[in-house]
Predict the 3D structure of the following.
Amino acid sequence: MLYDIIIIGAGPAGLTSAIYARRASKKTLVLEANSYGGQIINTLDIENYPTEEHISGFDFATRLYNQAKNLGTEIIFEKVVDINDTGKIKEVITTKNNYKAKTVIIATGSKNRKLNLPNEDELVGKGVSYCATCDGAFYKKKNVAVVGGGNTALEDALYLSNIAACVYLIHRRDEFRGQESTINLLKEKDNVKFIYNSNITKLNANDKLESIEVTNKDGSIKNIEVDGLFVAVGRIPENQNFAKLINIDEAGYIIANENCHTNVEGIYVAGDNRVKEVRQLVTATSDGAIAATSAIKYINEVSKKR
């Protein structure tokens, strides 16, 4: 069977691509390694998506999934391990089968780099977060900590300083890698406390996070009571299986133009796994629409030439 579009990933970007593809009557297959929804399913309350004042990440993802399914999208849960480009036809290889399509949209997203501490996963949504703009409002007038040394950590701390009572900014080195201007703004904040040369070594919790154990490189240990911990130590794009074919940057993100077109004709990218400035739910769905529209245009143009 030859599909018009194969979409790799059933997160917001991939499912939005499927909706646009099916509305254009293109035979569409979505391949997903795990469960639908991507990272957004871990968000308890979405407040920054247009028209949705409050919706859980799970409910949002389920609505999106059902919308794509009801339009006739075929969705198969298999992990994609490679793509073969044979010119006009792309062969997508999973751990179980091979599928062929005229175009491919890679929407595998990225995953948060974790601290790899015991009970970290269990505390997501219960004090541990990887997105300050998503969850910061839950910690109004409360004490929080941000861990990381890059621009994301600095921007998260600055954002939270306008919400939380106190923000502890924890970094394993003695200086930050982020922009000096942001560091200067943080230093002007009375409620931001800098903790250098330190790592978080333990998360203390009952039903939710209560405090964090911080270990300095000199060996000293202290516990800091916080209601929330925002982890900003980087992200890992899920592009490893395509690096031989698709151009990626040093951090592993796929390089694409404004139309989400990669360096390979007929292969597109959408979502958090591509090079971009803002990685939010709304930009993921935007990418999905753009990538699908580009793929549809390509298919139609090729068809006219025959």
